[in-house]
Write a structure and sequence with these properties.
Elements lengths: L10 E5 L8 H6 L1 E7 L4 H15 L1 E7 L2 H11 L2 E4 L2 H9 L11 E12 L20 E4 L7 H7 L4 H10 E5 L2 H10 L5 E5 L11 E4 L7 E8 L1 H4 L2 H10 L2 H9 L18 E7 L4 E2 L2 E2 H15 L7 E7 L10 H8 L8 H9 L3 E5 H7 L11 E3 L2 H10 L3 E4 L1
Parallel strand pairs: 2-3, 2-4, 6-7, 6-8, 11-14, 11-17, 14-15, 15-16
Antiparallel strand pairs: 1-3, 4-10, 5-8, 5-9, 5-10, 12-13
Helix pairs in contact: 2-9, 2-10
Amino acid sequence: MCIRRPHLPIWVVVLSSGLAAVNATDAWAQEVLHLYGPLGPSPAVKEAAMVFGNRNNVKLELVAGPTGDWLGKATADADLIFSSAEFMMSGFLRTKELRLDEASVTALYLRPSAILVRPGNPKQINDFPDLLKPGVRVMVVTGSGQTGLWEDMATKVGDIRTLRALRSNIVEFAANSAEAKKAWFERDDVDAWLTWSIWYMPLRDRAEHIRVSMPYRVYRQCSIALTERGKAKPMAAEFIEFLGSPEGAGIFDSWGWMTPPRDASPLAVHEDICVVCRIKQDDWKNEVGFGLACVQRLLRDYNAMGVRYDEIHISAVFHGDAAYWMLKDEPYGAFTKREGGNPNKSVVQELVGLGVSVELCGQTMKEHGWTKQDVLPGVKIVVGAYPRIIDLELQGYAYIRF
């Protein structure tokens, strides 16, 4: 295991409104807000601060990084402090020198845990259990907003063997997310980073995002609070209100945070929607397997009604006459005696990319003599369709047959 503790710089961003050329009197009169917090939420906070500052003629000075790097300065001039977890905000409240107003603490938005993998996903990591396989090299963060994250995920199912298996595969224990980001660039031998979903955005050209299924998923919040100094500045409280507004939510949403639905919808449930779809019939519509098109439509309909994709958990189980839809081009052609490749391939890839668990019955594969190498990337193989469907129903999944 490699443990490194390099010096990490903090971000200092000055966000100021108005024209480049202003007279000294105007600049002196402009109100200044000093914000401090960790790196994780800072891209969203930075963008929100820029919009708010330009609109209200306020200068916002944002410093983001490991707490120890800015704490001394924050005790002198902080107006607002934001955090990336409740335990972090609680720690800030216990730091008397910050003089936080506990009544002003405002929980903003959540983000779920996630896995980042290398482009192309060479180790075929599709969910948390894949991190437990021999030979998978994992990076975790042990501090800041990710304190305890990997342990919480590994112990959610109540099996110590899960924690042991993950612990044996961890090759990098980064002190914070900034250090982990640096290691992701420097260590090609790291296959996966167990982190928060929001870290995909700054790394999207160097990583792929893998959604974690509910049995292992953990959520944590971003919150913000006024200091006693900030309470004397009306604009500081107005900035907190702006962060919680629909416009502020839209900014956080664009950076991967979970925000409430913006529009009213007829749905009573907007979170943790679990559906298992049984697809057996070889029916087609518009040159695509009908069952695939139905799953695609179901996903889009939920999203159109304000449900985030990461709250929609669909397992699409293919077996019987529809099983061959999951084949790569060559075995698909051999089975159908048709040229031109598998027309379902792009839809399968889209669904997998949106988090649908596309699953193929192993019994059907055995009947046709297909192997894992014949199956499209991202498709999971289950021992049997019916036991899988029954198991998911017993877990509370709604059942649909196409």
